[in-house]
Amino acid sequence: MAKVPGGLWQNLIAVQVYGANTGVGKTVVSTLLGHHFARRKGNTRWLVRYIKPVSTGPSDEADEKYVRRYTNQPVATLFKYDQPVSPHLAVRGVKFIPTDAVIVQKLHAKLKADARACAMSKGEMGISLVETAGGVLSPGPSGTPQADIFRPMRMPVILVGDHRLGGIASTISASESLLIRGYDLDAVVCFDDGGKHENSKYLKSHFQSNGIPCFELPWIPDLQNLSMDAEIGKMMTYYDETSSDRSTYKLAGRLIDSHVARLRNLNSMSSRTKNVIWHPFTQHKSVEKPDDILTFDSAYGDYFQVKHTARSKQGVVMKNEESLLFPAFDASASWWTQGLGHGNPELSLAAAYAAGRYGHVMFGGATHEPALTLAERLLKAMKNPRLAKAFYTDDGSTAVEVGIKMALRASCKRYAWNGSAEDVGIIGLKGSYHGDTIGAMDASEPCVYNKNVDWYRGRGYWFDFPTIKMSKGRWFVEPPPGMGEDFGPTEYFEDLDRVFNLEERGHSPRYEAYIESVLDSLVTEKGRKFGALVMEPVILGAGGMIFVDPLFQQSLVRVVRRYKFVANSSTPEDADSWTGLPVVFDEVFTGLYRLGRFSAASFLQVHPDISVHAKLLTGGLLPLSVTLASESIFQAFWGDEKSDALLHGHSYTAHPIGCHVANTSLTQMQIISRGDLWKGYQKAWREPATTDAEELHFTMRGEEKGIWSMWSKKTTTKLSEHPLVDHVVAIGSVLKVSLRDKSGSGYSSTAAAGLRDALLNDVTEHATRVHCRVLGNVLYLMASMNSKDLNLVEITLLQQLSKL
Fold first, then answer.
1. Which of 435, 438, 565, 686 has the smallest C-beta neighbourhood within 10 Å, fewest atoms?
2. Same domain (yes/no): 24, 132
3. pLDDT (tens digit, 9 = 90+) per residue, 451-507?
4. Using an 8 Å Cβ cutoff, are 740 and 724 in contact?
């Protein structure tokens, strides 16, 4: 995944020339446009450049030689191979095979040089024609399709149609391959074959009905049986005449107009947004200027493409040769949803397939393959014998709300409570937050998210708990301030594996006694009623990335399941039925590989009765959520009347596109979880292995190979030793940095805001700019499941922290 700016400059039009197939005339179109712009009449002088990123075949047949001959303009080939075969075959036996990232970075450097040449020639505009090899999906040297290699720069495209028999189908297919990858198709070009196949006529009608201009160019002269001099003369005449042809002027004008319109739109988006958009989690009084609103042009892999402002936050004026877009690492994983990178072609194709097969179909009393397959695989992958049913909703908050409805009905039915008339609450953890719908919001204690919501009631009790932190290079479990007598003193651990080795740590009589004493006070003495235990396993996300001692959470579940919330209540005979209270795990954030495992419940070695999932479910592409429930929970809604049923649903419940994308996403993440990338991260956190027995222990546990992070152990330790850092946490794809703030922690703190802004606005050369979010004094970074080169972000983080 290339870290490279988008291909957009103020005074340079960079356009890619793709072909619907090989041999359709891409080089002729490139040459014609080069010839035209070099001689274009008007007040603007045009600097013309031609670039061939990858070329194969003998030098005397190279496209660059042809283009130079007929345009008399500078040309460049970035990577050249002698064999006249596909690039992925031409590199066989070659010592250096460029990666996709190297190709794109070298192309950007060449285009930047072209933009610099425009800037040095006052009053000039430039056009750089980037001609690909073969068809749209022809492989590059690595075997990756070209459309995917060059996607990070997302340059506008001219598609040269196929004039031959069957060319209509190949041209339309090529256009759809480009569109599904997020390219802007500025123009389709067809050659007039004199009415032989009439491809041009059909394609012109097809594309114009879809809002894409299609241009017909004069037929290429017949050069058979001509001498070299005669051939050159005939083609020169063709280019001289055709470059001033009306159709060529229209095609060139389309490229200019599209460029101007794109600049105008991009430059006005922030001010237009300020006028009409109400942003989430935003105090709009603090949004003083339009430039305070980031403008995203696109995203690919781990990076957003963000619009530059004319002047940076440090006062640096942007140079003309710089792209108007810069890549910013998406360090919040787009609010924790991103799993397989932005613009993932496999997910896009899956969405298109399901959209074409189904669109959306209603789900009441019906079924379809994507939803059924997803439910079956989730229930199986959870490895939880309690879970038996899947209920689909649209987002994490709603899925939690459904889980709470399920749990409260089950408790009220078993204990003969009237939940509508009696005050029945939930048990949870302090600092937890489960979403913005009213029911989910009521399952959290008063906080910045809900205390000003007029319907908020806060129905429950939230336990204090010990937390896990790394400080000064050491991991420790720390009780809340002033609660050492209840939870015991701070404990130090050599590594996270020992914190999570619950078998070795054993049951905690101190934790369990504390929990029982609190429940006795609430239930026995005060007569309060509770219908569910609701908590996020391991990490409380929105509450500030709070890392909970897993032994406390395990103890809480154990006590709640054996506690008598109603005197003389009986225990179900079925071992998989809920007891005490239904246990609801909110894994919206922590589940589906976010912490390095499929389910965060496995860290606690506990099987919940209800498990809630969203965020990573579709790899970050579409909203979808699911609430998994046990058979005993399901039976609480079994009855003769419709009113006994779970009367909850959405128009887009179990929408087939989301379900099919989720199946594709889960397959990809499962492959990644077992692949070399993750093995490398896991190995780095285990080195040096303490004993052979430990290594065998990790191996035997399969997926659960200890506790590890995609963020390096070295960087995590360094951060924990920094004088401005209170503590850090690293697990799976999550890195939390809690900064010291003398005025106090929490959401009122602004301690992390300066670091956040510095990470995004670093304009020093070669810096990795990072877009991240803060939670008061906490700055957190999050990666996709397939993120590589995170050391670039780590280096930037350490450098910026040292400047504070």
1. 438
2. yes
3. 888 888 999 999 999 999 999 999 999 999 999 999 999 999 999 999 999 999 999
4. yes
Residue 470 to residue 462: CA distance in whole angstroms: 25
Domain CATH code at residue 750: 3.90.1150.10
> Edge-to-edge strand order for the sheet containing 769-771?
296-300, 303-307, 325-330, 769-771
Does any domain span residue 303? no
Token pair recorded at residue 601: 């419940």
Q: Domains in the chain: how many in total?
A: 3
Q: If DSSP states are collapsed to H, E and C, what string results for 137-198? A: CCECCCCCEHHHHCHHHCCCEEEECCCCCCHHHHHHHHHHHHHCCCCCEEEEEEECCCCCCC
Give the residue-averaged pLDDT of 399-411.
97
pLDDT at 442 over 60: yes
E strands, 495-597, are 529-535, 539-540, 546-547, 583-586
Structure letter (DSSP) for residue 688: S
User: Does residue 692 sit within a domain?
Assistant: no
- Inform me whether the pLDDT recorded for 570 exceeds 80: yes
Contact call for residues 606 and 554 (beta carbons, < 8 A): yes
Per-residue DSSP letter, 301: B
State pLDDT tens for residues 29-42: 999 999 999 999 88
356 and 250 both lie in a single domain: no
Q: Rounded distance, CA 35 to CA 237, Å?
A: 12
Would the CA dihedral through 436, 439, 441, 444 be positive or negative?
negative
**Nearest alpha-carbon partner for 66 in 12, 27, 32, 103:** 27
Report field, pTM of the whole predicted structure over 0.90:
yes
- Whether residues 629 and 735 share a domain: the answer is no
For residue range 299-310, list pLDDT tens digits in order.
999 999 999 886
Last residue of a domain, one of 624, 648, 672: 648
Residue 692 has pLDDT above 80, yes or no: no
Which alpha helices (DSSP H) does 576-733 contain, by range?
Answer: 601-604, 631-635, 656-673, 676-686, 692-700, 713-720
Under DSSP, is residue 730 helix (H, G, I), strand (E, B) or coil? Answer: strand
Distance CA 436, CA 398 (A): 8
Tell me which residue range forms the domain holding 752.
709-803
469 strand-pairing partners? 476
The answer to whether residue 289 sits within a structural domain is no
Q: Would you say residue 369 lies in a domain?
A: yes
- Contact present, 14 and 155 (Cβ < 8 Å): yes
Of 263, 279, 313, the position where a domain reaches its end is: 263
**Both 601 and 740 in a single domain?**
no
Give the single-character DSSP code of 781. E
